[in-house]
Every structure is written in C-alpha cells, then in structure tokens.
Amino acid sequence: MRALVATGYGDPEQLTIAELAIPRPGPGQILVKIAASSINPTDLRVITGGYRDLVDLQFPYTLGNEFAGTVTEAGPDVTRFHVGDEIFGLALPRQLRSAADPVRPSLSTGALADYAVFEADTPALGHRPAALGAEQAASLLIAGGTTLAIMDTADISPGESVLVIGATGAVGLTLIPNLATAGAEITATARTTEAADLLRSLGAHHTVGYDDYPTGVDVVLNLALFADGLPAAARSLRPGGRLISIVFPPPEPRQLERDDVKLAFVMHMGDETNGAWAVAEAATAGRLSTPIARRYSLDDGVEAAIDYARRHPLGKIVVTV
C-alpha cells in the first residue's frame, strides 16, 4: 500500500510516498480503507523534531491523525464496528502513545495511507453519518472537537470581549462562528486582508496583527503561541481575565508574568463530550463547519504537506485516497 512517510527527521520536502505492507488488525482493532485524511500541525511538528524530547521516532514513520474510511476487517473482540461500516475519527500514530489518552488511547498505524489499523474502543472514532461527507469528516474532528472543548471551558457570556490568537488556523476558523453565536465581541488575529475578510465573514468584529493586541479583554484564546509569546497575550487581559491555550506543552502560570488571571489548557483527546459522536451531531445540526482550503490525492501527499507548511492555507488541506 501507499503511505506518506518520513524516513528521518527533516522538513516536509523530505517526505516520500512509500510502498508498505498492509497492516493487520489485532484483538480490539480494525483495519480501515482510508477515503480521506488531512494534514495537521502535529504531523509537521513531529517530523521536524518538535516532540523529540517526548519521543524519539523510529523510521519510517507514517503521518496522519484525522481520517474517514470504510472498515474492511475487524480483529477479535471487536463488536462496535463491522466490515462495511463508514467511520471517521482521530488517532495518533502509535509512536505518539505518550500523548494519547492513558485509559482509552486512540492510536493507529498512520492515517495518511491506503489502509490503517485503529483501536476500536475509543470515543475518538465513530460511525460517519450519511449527511457528513468523507472529506468533511476527515477535516473536522480536531478543529470541531477542540472548538467544543474550548467553548465548554471558556464559558463565554454574551457581551464578553474575546481575543483569538491564531484565528486563521483550522481551529480558529471553526471556533469564530461559535463565539459569535455565544454573543462574544470577537477580536481575531490576521496577517493578510484576505484572512481578515474571511474572519469577518465568519463573525469576527475586529482583526489585528500579532503586535497589536487590544487591552482590557475578558478572554484570550491562544491557538498558536508557544511560551515566549504568552506574556504579550496575557497583557491584553483585564484583571481577573481568562487565558485558555491549546498549544502543547501546557503553559505554566509563571510564563504569563501575571498572577491576576486565570489560566486553563485544553487538549482535545476525543472523549465523550467532544469526540466523534459529539462532533458529528454538532456538524449535522449546522453548528460546526471547518473550511477546506485545498484537496490533494495521496500520490501528491508530499506537495500537500509542503503546501500546509509553507503557504499557510486558510482552511484544511485534505488528502483523498
């Protein structure tokens, strides 16, 4: 089978489409024929060595977290899924086990491939509703599930001012309409006129650059900054304000250089409240939608990864198989 793999640490230009053996499912596992997958920040950060202090990769390493596809084989003890089921979900490649849910880890052999093996018993996988197309499903779970988790944690009240940093990523583009529905006064970061126009069309009231944050806001949602950018983000908050970050590793209060704000970290793991079932329900009800910027075939998977890394698309990069 074909797979998008890294043969060593390096930039996405060094990825390759390799021929690998089709993996076999063991007890509690399913084999899925992939219909669509997508490129995510984790894919690129892992292969460039960004998580090397947590895991030292063994190569070749197959990329891919989000997917939609068809079950073609079920291993022993699997009762939740059957051959022919259309499913979708989120699963970390097995080598990233340390970052997965410690109780019910959602792991795979890598979803940017013709076939992948997944753990069946996890809320991060679910049946794909007919109303949810494969490409949409393969692009929605991380951004949609993270949006649900942020909205639950942030508990936005109508009229509260919210600064969204990293708003033009997939999470931001999915989150902005939900903040607007909640009645927030939204300021979002944007580097280009095209990005600003898109954010305003989704519900943002104001757009700013990364060096022009407003002050006195109630909530900061950090979707992009690492630790060195947090003090500037925190300075935009009013006393007693809230800063919620999704950027791994979890920030520490001392990194904010303020002790009068509330700090929270959200890491979407695909549990019952924001996993596949919850995301599918919200998407089919019209409450969640993630824009797709461009589509590539698996044969062009290297170009898809380069596009994501170098051209900063406004929306997801989907790879069809």
Estimate percent helicity. 10-25%
CATH superfamily of the largest domain: Medium-chain alcohol dehydrogenases, catalytic domain
Strand runs, count: 18
Structural class: alpha/beta
Choose one word for the global shape: globular
Strand content: 25-35%
Per CATH, the class of the largest domain reads Alpha Beta
Alpha carbon gyration radius: 19 Å
Cα-to-Cα separation, first versus last residue: 11 Å
Mean pLDDT: 95
CATH third-level topology of the largest domain: Quinone Oxidoreductase, Chain A, domain 1
What do these coordinates show?
The protein has 321 residues and is α/β, with parallel strands linked by helices. The protein contains 7 helices and 18 strands. The strands form 4 sheets. Strands 3, 5, 6, 9, 10, 17 and 18 form a 7-stranded mixed beta sheet that branches. Helix 2 (134-154) packs across helix 6. The radius of gyration is 19 Å and the shape is globular.
